[in-house]
Protein backbone atom coordinates (compact mmCIF):
# COMPACT_ATOMS: atom_id res chain seq x y z
CA UNK A 1 0.00 0.00 0.00
CA UNK A 2 1.42 3.38 -1.03
CA UNK A 3 1.45 6.41 1.15
CA UNK A 4 -0.37 9.31 -0.43
CA UNK A 5 1.21 11.68 2.12
CA UNK A 6 4.29 11.17 4.25
CA UNK A 7 6.11 13.46 6.67
CA UNK A 8 9.47 12.45 8.08
CA UNK A 9 11.17 14.40 10.86
CA UNK A 10 9.75 17.74 9.76
CA UNK A 11 10.84 20.75 11.81
CA UNK A 12 9.91 24.39 11.83
CA UNK A 13 11.11 26.92 14.36
CA UNK A 14 9.46 30.21 15.20
CA UNK A 15 10.50 32.46 18.05
CA UNK A 16 7.69 31.27 20.31
CA UNK A 17 6.66 27.94 18.79
CA UNK A 18 8.23 24.96 17.05
CA UNK A 19 7.11 21.93 15.14
CA UNK A 20 9.44 19.18 16.25
CA UNK A 21 10.29 16.02 14.37
CA UNK A 22 6.82 15.70 12.86
CA UNK A 23 6.37 12.27 11.26
CA UNK A 24 3.27 10.50 10.03
CA UNK A 25 2.00 8.73 6.94
CA UNK A 26 -1.42 8.57 5.29
CA UNK A 27 -1.92 5.46 3.12
CA UNK A 28 -3.97 5.65 -0.07
CA UNK A 29 -7.68 5.03 0.33
CA UNK A 30 -8.05 6.37 3.86
CA UNK A 31 -9.13 9.40 5.83
CA UNK A 32 -6.76 10.73 8.47
CA UNK A 33 -8.06 12.94 11.23
CA UNK A 34 -5.33 15.40 12.11
CA UNK A 35 -6.24 16.37 15.58
CA UNK A 36 -5.01 18.50 18.41
CA UNK A 37 -6.04 21.45 20.56
CA UNK A 38 -5.95 25.01 19.22
CA UNK A 39 -2.36 26.13 18.68
CA UNK A 40 -1.02 22.56 18.52
CA UNK A 41 0.61 23.14 15.13
CA UNK A 42 -1.97 21.69 12.74
CA UNK A 43 -2.19 24.71 10.43
CA UNK A 44 1.59 25.19 10.54
CA UNK A 45 2.03 21.57 9.41
CA UNK A 46 -0.53 21.95 6.64
CA UNK A 47 1.14 25.15 5.49
CA UNK A 48 4.46 23.29 5.29
CA UNK A 49 2.82 20.50 3.29
CA UNK A 50 1.54 23.16 0.85
CA UNK A 51 4.94 24.91 0.81
CA UNK A 52 3.45 28.08 2.23
CA UNK A 53 5.92 27.85 5.10
CA UNK A 54 9.46 26.68 4.43
CA UNK A 55 10.37 23.75 6.65
CA UNK A 56 13.65 23.93 8.56
CA UNK A 57 14.31 20.21 8.26
CA UNK A 58 12.87 16.83 7.38
CA UNK A 59 11.09 15.54 4.28
CA UNK A 60 7.55 15.78 2.96
CA UNK A 61 6.40 13.46 0.22
CA UNK A 62 3.06 13.59 -1.55
CA UNK A 63 2.21 10.80 -4.01
CA UNK A 64 5.75 9.58 -3.10
CA UNK A 65 7.34 12.70 -4.60
CA UNK A 66 9.12 15.60 -2.94
CA UNK A 67 6.55 18.30 -2.28
CA UNK A 68 8.81 21.12 -3.52
CA UNK A 69 10.69 19.47 -6.38
CA UNK A 70 7.46 18.21 -7.92
CA UNK A 71 5.23 21.01 -6.61
CA UNK A 72 3.34 21.74 -9.83
CA UNK A 73 2.67 18.10 -10.64
CA UNK A 74 1.57 17.36 -7.07
CA UNK A 75 -0.74 20.36 -6.76
CA UNK A 76 -2.60 19.36 -9.92
CA UNK A 77 -3.89 16.47 -7.80
CA UNK A 78 -4.53 18.22 -4.49
CA UNK A 79 -7.72 19.90 -3.35
CA UNK A 80 -7.50 22.28 -0.41
CA UNK A 81 -10.21 23.60 1.88
CA UNK A 82 -9.24 26.04 4.61
CA UNK A 83 -11.35 27.40 7.43
CA UNK A 84 -11.43 30.75 5.65
CA UNK A 85 -12.21 31.37 1.98
CA UNK A 86 -9.30 32.59 -0.12
CA UNK A 87 -11.17 33.93 -3.14
CA UNK A 88 -11.95 37.52 -4.13
CA UNK A 89 -15.15 38.25 -2.24
CA UNK A 90 -16.59 40.18 -5.19
CA UNK A 91 -16.28 37.15 -7.48
CA UNK A 92 -19.37 35.24 -8.46
CA UNK A 93 -19.11 31.46 -8.51
CA UNK A 94 -18.93 31.75 -12.32
CA UNK A 95 -15.91 34.08 -11.99
CA UNK A 96 -14.38 31.60 -9.57
CA UNK A 97 -14.53 28.80 -12.11
CA UNK A 98 -13.16 31.00 -14.89
CA UNK A 99 -10.25 32.00 -12.66
CA UNK A 100 -9.32 28.50 -11.50
CA UNK A 101 -10.10 26.37 -14.54
CA UNK A 102 -7.05 27.29 -16.67
CA UNK A 103 -4.67 26.05 -13.97
CA UNK A 104 -5.90 22.46 -14.00
CA UNK A 105 -5.50 19.97 -16.80
CA UNK A 106 -8.28 17.83 -15.32
CA UNK A 107 -10.84 20.54 -14.53
CA UNK A 108 -14.40 19.32 -15.13
CA UNK A 109 -16.85 22.14 -15.69
CA UNK A 110 -19.85 19.83 -15.59
CA UNK A 111 -18.76 18.41 -12.27
CA UNK A 112 -18.33 21.90 -10.82
CA UNK A 113 -21.83 22.85 -11.94
CA UNK A 114 -23.26 19.60 -10.58
CA UNK A 115 -21.55 20.09 -7.22
CA UNK A 116 -22.84 23.65 -6.94
CA UNK A 117 -26.32 22.38 -7.73
CA UNK A 118 -25.97 19.59 -5.14
CA UNK A 119 -24.89 22.15 -2.56
CA UNK A 120 -27.76 24.47 -3.54
CA UNK A 121 -25.32 27.22 -4.48
CA UNK A 122 -26.38 29.84 -7.00
CA UNK A 123 -23.60 30.35 -9.57
CA UNK A 124 -24.49 34.00 -9.94
CA UNK A 125 -24.03 34.75 -6.24
CA UNK A 126 -20.95 36.57 -5.05
CA UNK A 127 -18.60 34.96 -2.56
CA UNK A 128 -19.31 37.75 -0.06
CA UNK A 129 -23.03 36.96 -0.22
CA UNK A 130 -22.53 33.36 0.91
CA UNK A 131 -22.88 32.11 4.47
CA UNK A 132 -19.90 30.47 6.15
CA UNK A 133 -21.22 27.00 5.39
CA UNK A 134 -21.78 27.95 1.76
CA UNK A 135 -18.23 29.30 1.48
CA UNK A 136 -16.84 26.00 2.74
CA UNK A 137 -19.03 24.15 0.22
CA UNK A 138 -17.76 26.47 -2.54
CA UNK A 139 -14.17 25.64 -1.65
CA UNK A 140 -15.10 21.96 -1.63
CA UNK A 141 -16.74 22.22 -5.04
CA UNK A 142 -13.58 23.86 -6.41
CA UNK A 143 -11.38 21.25 -4.71
CA UNK A 144 -13.39 18.36 -6.14
CA UNK A 145 -13.77 19.69 -9.68
CA UNK A 146 -10.24 18.95 -10.84
CA UNK A 147 -10.17 15.26 -9.94
CA UNK A 148 -8.02 15.74 -6.84
CA UNK A 149 -6.57 12.57 -5.37
CA UNK A 150 -5.67 14.11 -2.03
CA UNK A 151 -7.95 16.42 -0.10
CA UNK A 152 -6.42 18.59 2.59
CA UNK A 153 -8.94 20.24 4.86
CA UNK A 154 -7.90 22.62 7.61
CA UNK A 155 -10.57 23.06 10.26
CA UNK A 156 -13.38 23.25 7.71
CA UNK A 157 -16.06 22.43 10.28
CA UNK A 158 -15.41 25.19 12.80
CA UNK A 159 -18.44 27.45 12.68
CA UNK A 160 -20.58 25.01 10.69
CA UNK A 161 -23.90 23.81 12.03
CA UNK A 162 -24.64 20.11 12.62
CA UNK A 163 -26.44 19.65 9.30
CA UNK A 164 -23.61 21.19 7.27
CA UNK A 165 -21.07 19.06 9.14
CA UNK A 166 -23.04 15.92 8.49
CA UNK A 167 -23.28 16.78 4.77
CA UNK A 168 -19.52 17.31 4.66
CA UNK A 169 -18.90 13.92 6.24
CA UNK A 170 -21.19 12.26 3.71
CA UNK A 171 -19.30 13.92 0.91
CA UNK A 172 -15.96 12.75 2.24
CA UNK A 173 -17.28 9.20 2.63
CA UNK A 174 -18.26 9.28 -1.03
CA UNK A 175 -14.90 10.73 -2.07
CA UNK A 176 -12.91 8.03 -0.31
CA UNK A 177 -14.81 5.21 -2.01
CA UNK A 178 -12.11 5.46 -4.66
CA UNK A 179 -9.18 3.64 -3.09
CA UNK A 180 -6.61 5.82 -4.87
CA UNK A 181 -7.66 8.87 -2.94
CA UNK A 182 -6.92 10.15 0.54
CA UNK A 183 -8.06 12.83 2.95
CA UNK A 184 -6.14 14.73 5.60
CA UNK A 185 -8.69 16.47 7.80
CA UNK A 186 -7.49 18.80 10.49
CA UNK A 187 -9.86 19.59 13.31
CA UNK A 188 -10.03 20.24 17.01
CA UNK A 189 -13.58 18.89 17.16
CA UNK A 190 -13.04 15.16 17.73
CA UNK A 191 -16.61 14.15 16.95
CA UNK A 192 -16.31 15.42 13.36
CA UNK A 193 -14.79 12.30 11.93
CA UNK A 194 -15.47 9.75 14.63
CA UNK A 195 -17.45 7.55 12.24
CA UNK A 196 -15.44 7.87 9.05
CA UNK A 197 -11.77 8.45 9.97
CA UNK A 198 -9.48 5.44 9.59
CA UNK A 199 -6.29 7.02 10.90
CA UNK A 200 -5.60 9.52 13.62
CA UNK A 201 -2.60 11.78 13.99
CA UNK A 202 -2.79 13.51 17.30
CA UNK A 203 -0.44 16.41 17.94
CA UNK A 204 0.15 18.86 20.73
CA UNK A 205 2.72 21.63 21.17
CA UNK A 206 4.18 20.84 17.75
CA UNK A 207 4.84 17.17 18.51
CA UNK A 208 3.11 14.00 17.34
CA UNK A 209 1.64 12.22 20.36
CA UNK A 210 0.04 9.42 18.35
CA UNK A 211 -0.20 8.45 14.72
CA UNK A 212 -1.88 5.23 13.67
CA UNK A 213 -5.28 3.70 13.18
CA UNK A 214 -8.22 5.07 15.09
CA UNK A 215 -9.24 1.59 16.26
CA UNK A 216 -5.78 0.89 17.72
CA UNK A 217 -5.93 4.11 19.66
CA UNK A 218 -9.43 3.50 21.00
CA UNK A 219 -8.68 -0.10 21.90
CA UNK A 220 -5.48 0.78 23.69
CA UNK A 221 -7.09 2.85 26.45
CA UNK A 222 -9.91 2.62 28.97
CA UNK A 223 -11.56 5.26 31.08
CA UNK A 224 -11.31 4.34 34.77
CA UNK A 225 -13.38 5.70 37.64
CA UNK A 226 -13.38 4.92 41.36
CA UNK A 227 -13.59 6.19 44.89
CA UNK A 228 -11.01 8.26 46.66
CA UNK A 229 -8.26 6.45 48.53
CA UNK A 230 -8.48 3.14 46.65
CA UNK A 231 -5.33 3.69 44.56
CA UNK A 232 -1.74 3.60 45.72
CA UNK A 233 0.64 6.39 44.68
CA UNK A 234 2.21 4.06 42.10
CA UNK A 235 -1.16 3.18 40.60
CA UNK A 236 -2.10 6.86 40.37
CA UNK A 237 1.02 7.44 38.29
CA UNK A 238 -0.18 4.83 35.77
CA UNK A 239 -3.36 6.81 35.17
CA UNK A 240 -3.16 9.37 32.41
CA UNK A 241 -4.80 12.70 33.19
CA UNK A 242 -5.65 11.58 36.74
CA UNK A 243 -8.28 13.91 38.18
CA UNK A 244 -9.86 13.88 41.66
CA UNK A 245 -13.29 15.34 42.36
CA UNK A 246 -15.64 15.41 45.34
CA UNK A 247 -16.50 11.72 45.50
CA UNK A 248 -13.76 9.97 43.59
CA UNK A 249 -11.34 10.05 40.68
CA UNK A 250 -11.28 9.43 36.95
CA UNK A 251 -8.63 9.08 34.28
CA UNK A 252 -7.35 7.07 31.36
CA UNK A 253 -5.32 3.88 31.57
CA UNK A 254 -3.65 1.55 29.11
CA UNK A 255 -5.76 -1.60 28.73
CA UNK A 256 -2.79 -3.79 29.65
CA UNK A 257 -2.50 -2.10 33.02
CA UNK A 258 -6.07 -1.90 34.28
CA UNK A 259 -6.14 -5.47 35.67
CA UNK A 260 -3.54 -4.44 38.24
CA UNK A 261 -6.03 -1.95 39.68
CA UNK A 262 -8.46 -2.82 42.53
CA UNK A 263 -11.64 -4.64 41.43
CA UNK A 264 -13.85 -1.81 42.70
CA UNK A 265 -12.64 0.37 39.83
CA UNK A 266 -15.18 0.91 37.05
CA UNK A 267 -14.00 0.92 33.42
CA UNK A 268 -15.60 2.36 30.30
CA UNK A 269 -14.47 2.32 26.68
CA UNK A 270 -12.44 5.37 25.80
CA UNK A 271 -13.33 7.92 23.18
CA UNK A 272 -11.24 10.39 21.20
CA UNK A 273 -12.30 13.38 23.25
CA UNK A 274 -11.21 11.75 26.52
CA UNK A 275 -7.90 10.55 25.07
CA UNK A 276 -7.09 13.99 23.69
CA UNK A 277 -8.09 15.89 26.80
CA UNK A 278 -6.13 13.56 29.10
CA UNK A 279 -3.01 13.45 26.96
CA UNK A 280 -3.08 17.17 26.29
CA UNK A 281 -3.04 17.78 30.04
CA UNK A 282 -0.29 15.23 30.60
CA UNK A 283 1.71 16.09 27.48
CA UNK A 284 2.92 12.57 26.77
CA UNK A 285 2.84 10.29 23.75
CA UNK A 286 -0.19 8.08 23.33
CA UNK B 1 -2.65 27.66 -21.46
CA UNK B 2 0.71 28.06 -19.72
CA UNK B 3 0.75 28.58 -15.99
CA UNK B 4 2.08 32.12 -16.38
CA UNK B 5 -0.64 33.03 -18.88
CA UNK B 6 -3.19 31.51 -16.49
CA UNK B 7 -1.82 33.66 -13.69
CA UNK B 8 -2.07 36.81 -15.85
CA UNK B 9 -5.70 35.88 -16.50
CA UNK B 10 -6.22 35.36 -12.77
CA UNK B 11 -4.87 38.87 -12.11
CA UNK B 12 -7.33 40.30 -14.63
CA UNK B 13 -10.13 38.47 -12.82
CA UNK B 14 -8.83 39.83 -9.52
CA UNK B 15 -9.32 43.37 -10.88
CA UNK B 16 -12.63 42.53 -12.54
CA UNK B 17 -14.77 43.79 -9.64
CA UNK B 18 -13.18 47.20 -10.19
CA UNK B 19 -14.06 47.45 -13.86
CA UNK B 20 -16.70 50.14 -13.22
CA UNK B 21 -14.21 52.44 -11.48
CA UNK B 22 -11.66 51.74 -14.25
CA UNK B 23 -14.23 52.77 -16.89
CA UNK B 24 -15.03 55.88 -14.84
CA UNK B 25 -11.33 56.82 -14.74
CA UNK B 26 -11.08 56.35 -18.51
CA UNK B 27 -14.03 58.69 -19.00
CA UNK B 28 -12.47 61.25 -16.61
CA UNK B 29 -9.19 60.97 -18.53
CA UNK B 30 -11.02 61.57 -21.80
CA UNK B 31 -12.89 64.58 -20.45
CA UNK B 32 -9.67 66.06 -19.06
CA UNK B 33 -7.87 65.45 -22.34
CA UNK B 34 -10.65 67.13 -24.33
CA UNK B 35 -11.03 70.02 -21.91
CA UNK B 36 -7.35 70.78 -21.73
CA UNK B 37 -7.01 70.27 -25.49
CA UNK B 38 -3.58 68.79 -25.21
CA UNK B 39 -2.29 65.45 -26.48
CA UNK B 40 0.48 65.46 -23.90
CA UNK B 41 -2.05 65.43 -21.05
CA UNK B 42 -3.57 62.08 -22.05
CA UNK B 43 -0.42 59.97 -21.51
CA UNK B 44 0.20 61.61 -18.13
CA UNK B 45 -3.36 61.00 -16.94
CA UNK B 46 -3.58 57.41 -18.09
CA UNK B 47 -0.12 56.45 -16.84
CA UNK B 48 -1.09 57.94 -13.48
CA UNK B 49 -4.25 55.79 -13.42
CA UNK B 50 -2.08 52.78 -14.29
CA UNK B 51 0.30 53.49 -11.39
CA UNK B 52 -2.71 53.63 -9.08
CA UNK B 53 -4.07 50.29 -10.23
CA UNK B 54 -0.81 48.38 -10.22
CA UNK B 55 -0.88 47.87 -6.47
CA UNK B 56 -4.44 46.52 -6.61
CA UNK B 57 -3.58 42.85 -7.22
CA UNK B 58 -1.55 42.98 -4.01
CA UNK B 59 -4.10 44.89 -1.94
CA UNK B 60 -7.06 42.80 -3.14
CA UNK B 61 -4.94 39.68 -2.78
CA UNK B 62 -4.06 40.49 0.82
CA UNK B 63 -7.61 41.45 1.73
CA UNK B 64 -8.89 38.11 0.44
CA UNK B 65 -6.02 35.86 1.55
CA UNK B 66 -5.08 35.07 -2.02
CA UNK B 67 -1.53 34.03 -1.22
CA UNK B 68 -3.20 30.91 0.15
CA UNK B 69 -5.08 30.47 -3.12
CA UNK B 70 -1.81 30.77 -5.07
CA UNK B 71 -0.26 28.15 -2.74
CA UNK B 72 -3.04 25.67 -3.53
CA UNK B 73 -2.75 26.10 -7.31
CA UNK B 74 -0.32 24.05 -9.41
CA UNK B 75 2.17 26.91 -9.54
CA UNK B 76 5.71 27.47 -8.41
CA UNK B 77 6.46 30.69 -6.58
CA UNK B 78 8.48 31.92 -9.55
CA UNK B 79 5.46 31.46 -11.85
CA UNK B 80 3.49 33.76 -9.55
CA UNK B 81 6.16 36.49 -9.66
CA UNK B 82 6.76 36.21 -13.41
CA UNK B 83 2.99 36.12 -13.97
CA UNK B 84 2.50 39.32 -11.96
CA UNK B 85 5.23 41.14 -13.91
CA UNK B 86 3.80 39.84 -17.19
CA UNK B 87 0.44 41.24 -16.09
CA UNK B 88 2.02 44.64 -15.41
CA UNK B 89 3.77 44.66 -18.79
CA UNK B 90 0.56 43.72 -20.53
CA UNK B 91 -1.37 46.46 -18.70
CA UNK B 92 1.34 48.95 -19.63
CA UNK B 93 1.21 47.86 -23.26
CA UNK B 94 -2.60 48.08 -23.33
CA UNK B 95 -2.49 51.57 -21.77
CA UNK B 96 0.11 52.83 -24.24
CA UNK B 97 -1.79 51.38 -27.20
CA UNK B 98 -5.06 52.81 -25.88
CA UNK B 99 -3.60 56.28 -25.34
CA UNK B 100 -2.01 56.30 -28.81
CA UNK B 101 -5.25 55.24 -30.45
CA UNK B 102 -7.15 57.80 -28.47
CA UNK B 103 -4.70 60.58 -29.35
CA UNK B 104 -4.96 59.62 -33.01
CA UNK B 105 -8.75 59.58 -32.87
CA UNK B 106 -9.01 62.85 -31.01
CA UNK B 107 -6.59 64.67 -33.29
CA UNK B 108 -8.52 63.45 -36.36
CA UNK B 109 -12.11 63.59 -35.20
CA UNK B 110 -12.18 66.87 -33.36
CA UNK B 111 -10.96 70.18 -34.67
CA UNK B 112 -9.04 70.70 -31.48
CA UNK B 113 -6.15 73.08 -31.38
CA UNK B 114 -3.92 70.28 -30.21
CA UNK B 115 -0.65 71.78 -29.13
CA UNK B 116 1.51 68.83 -29.89
CA UNK B 117 2.28 66.38 -32.62
CA UNK B 118 1.73 62.62 -32.31
CA UNK B 119 5.50 62.20 -32.14
CA UNK B 120 5.69 64.27 -29.01
CA UNK B 121 2.78 62.36 -27.49
CA UNK B 122 4.61 59.14 -28.23
CA UNK B 123 7.79 60.51 -26.69
CA UNK B 124 6.02 61.54 -23.50
CA UNK B 125 4.43 58.06 -23.37
CA UNK B 126 7.86 56.43 -23.65
CA UNK B 127 9.30 58.59 -20.86
CA UNK B 128 6.25 58.04 -18.67
CA UNK B 129 6.47 54.33 -19.30
CA UNK B 130 10.07 54.40 -18.01
CA UNK B 131 8.92 56.31 -14.91
CA UNK B 132 6.12 53.77 -14.44
CA UNK B 133 8.60 50.90 -14.76
CA UNK B 134 10.85 52.55 -12.18
CA UNK B 135 7.97 52.83 -9.72
CA UNK B 136 6.91 49.22 -10.26
CA UNK B 137 10.53 48.05 -10.09
CA UNK B 138 10.90 49.56 -6.63
CA UNK B 139 7.43 48.75 -5.28
CA UNK B 140 6.90 45.15 -6.37
CA UNK B 141 9.84 43.52 -4.57
CA UNK B 142 8.60 45.23 -1.39
CA UNK B 143 5.09 43.88 -1.92
CA UNK B 144 6.41 40.39 -2.59
CA UNK B 145 8.67 40.48 0.44
CA UNK B 146 6.42 42.15 3.02
CA UNK B 147 2.88 41.92 1.71
CA UNK B 148 0.75 44.93 0.79
CA UNK B 149 0.01 46.45 4.21
CA UNK B 150 3.55 46.27 5.55
CA UNK B 151 5.11 47.41 2.28
CA UNK B 152 2.69 50.27 1.66
CA UNK B 153 4.69 52.83 3.65
CA UNK B 154 7.95 51.99 1.91
CA UNK B 155 6.37 52.24 -1.52
CA UNK B 156 6.18 56.01 -1.17
CA UNK B 157 9.99 56.07 -1.38
CA UNK B 158 10.11 56.04 -5.22
CA UNK B 159 7.68 58.95 -5.40
CA UNK B 160 9.90 60.92 -3.01
CA UNK B 161 12.96 59.98 -5.05
CA UNK B 162 11.34 61.21 -8.25
CA UNK B 163 10.29 64.46 -6.57
CA UNK B 164 13.85 64.94 -5.29
CA UNK B 165 15.24 64.31 -8.78
CA UNK B 166 12.84 66.81 -10.33
CA UNK B 167 13.67 69.49 -7.76
CA UNK B 168 17.37 68.74 -8.25
CA UNK B 169 17.12 69.13 -12.01
CA UNK B 170 15.05 72.28 -11.79
CA UNK B 171 17.50 73.87 -9.34
CA UNK B 172 18.99 77.03 -10.80
CA UNK B 173 22.65 76.02 -10.60
CA UNK B 174 21.93 72.73 -12.39
CA UNK B 175 19.85 74.46 -15.08
CA UNK B 176 22.79 76.66 -15.91
CA UNK B 177 25.20 73.76 -16.01
CA UNK B 178 23.10 71.75 -18.45
CA UNK B 179 21.99 73.22 -21.71
CA UNK B 180 18.63 71.45 -21.97
CA UNK B 181 17.88 72.78 -25.40
CA UNK B 182 20.99 71.20 -26.90
CA UNK B 183 20.29 67.98 -24.99
CA UNK B 184 16.78 67.91 -26.44
CA UNK B 185 18.10 68.66 -29.95
CA UNK B 186 20.57 65.80 -29.63
CA UNK B 187 17.92 63.37 -28.41
CA UNK B 188 15.35 64.34 -31.00
CA UNK B 189 17.93 63.84 -33.74
CA UNK B 190 18.36 60.19 -32.69
CA UNK B 191 15.16 58.16 -32.94
CA UNK B 192 16.36 55.30 -30.74
CA UNK B 193 17.40 57.65 -27.95
CA UNK B 194 14.10 59.40 -28.17
CA UNK B 195 11.75 56.41 -28.10
CA UNK B 196 13.82 53.30 -27.55
CA UNK B 197 16.03 54.20 -24.62
CA UNK B 198 13.27 55.04 -22.09
CA UNK B 199 11.46 51.82 -23.00
CA UNK B 200 14.69 49.78 -22.86
CA UNK B 201 15.64 51.27 -19.50
CA UNK B 202 12.13 50.51 -18.23
CA UNK B 203 12.31 46.91 -19.39
CA UNK B 204 15.74 46.40 -17.80
CA UNK B 205 14.45 47.81 -14.51
CA UNK B 206 11.43 45.50 -14.61
CA UNK B 207 13.64 42.50 -15.42
CA UNK B 208 15.94 43.22 -12.47
CA UNK B 209 13.00 43.83 -10.19
CA UNK B 210 11.36 40.57 -11.30
CA UNK B 211 14.54 38.60 -10.50
CA UNK B 212 14.77 40.23 -7.06
CA UNK B 213 11.06 39.69 -6.38
CA UNK B 214 11.41 36.03 -7.28
CA UNK B 215 14.20 35.55 -4.76
CA UNK B 216 12.28 37.39 -2.06
CA UNK B 217 8.96 35.63 -2.64
CA UNK B 218 10.53 32.19 -2.79
CA UNK B 219 11.96 32.77 0.69
CA UNK B 220 8.84 34.25 2.21
CA UNK B 221 6.66 32.37 4.68
CA UNK B 222 3.01 32.94 3.86
Describe the structure.
The complex is a heterodimer of chains A (286) and B (222). In chain A, 29% of the residues lie in helices and 30% in strands. Chain A is α/β, with parallel strands linked by helices. Chain A has two domains: 215 residues, Rossmann fold, CATH 3.40.50; 63 residues, no CATH class. In chain A, a hairpin with a 2-residue loop joins β4 and β5. In chain A, α4 packs antiparallel against α5. Chain A is elongated, with a radius of gyration of 21 Å. The model of chain A has no long low-confidence stretch (mean pLDDT 89). Chain B is an all-alpha fold and 222 residues long. Chain B has one domain. Chain B is built from twelve helices and no strands. In chain B, α3 runs antiparallel to α6 and α7 packs parallel to α12. Classes of the chains: A alpha/beta (286), B mainly alpha (222). Chains A and B meet through α2 and α3 of A and α1 and α5 of B.
Order of helices and strands of chain B: HHHHHHHHHHHH
- What proportion of the residues of chain A is helical, as a percent range? 25-40%
Largest sheet of chain B: none
Number of helix segments of chain B?
A: 12
End-to-end C-alpha gap of chain A = 25 Å
**The top level CATH class name of the largest domain in chain A:** Alpha Beta
**Using CB atoms under 8 Å apart, which protein chain pair has the greatest interface?**
A-B, 30 and 28 residues
The profile of the biggest β sheet of chain A is:
6 strands, mixed
Write down the overall mean pLDDT of chain A. 89
**CATH architecture verdict of the largest domain in chain A:** 3-Layer(aba) Sandwich
- Terminal-residue CA separation of chain B: 26 Å
Helix content of chain B: over 70%
Q: What overall geometry of chain B do the principal axes of the alpha carbons give?
A: globular
Please mark out the parts of chain B with pLDDT under 50 across 5 or more consecutive residues, or reply none.
Answer: none
Globally, the shape of chain A reads elongated
Which oligomerization state do the chains in this entry correspond to?
A: heterodimer
Q: What are the low-pLDDT stretches of chain A, counting only 5+ consecutive residues below 50?
A: none
Number of helices of chain A: 9
Strand elements of chain A, count: 14
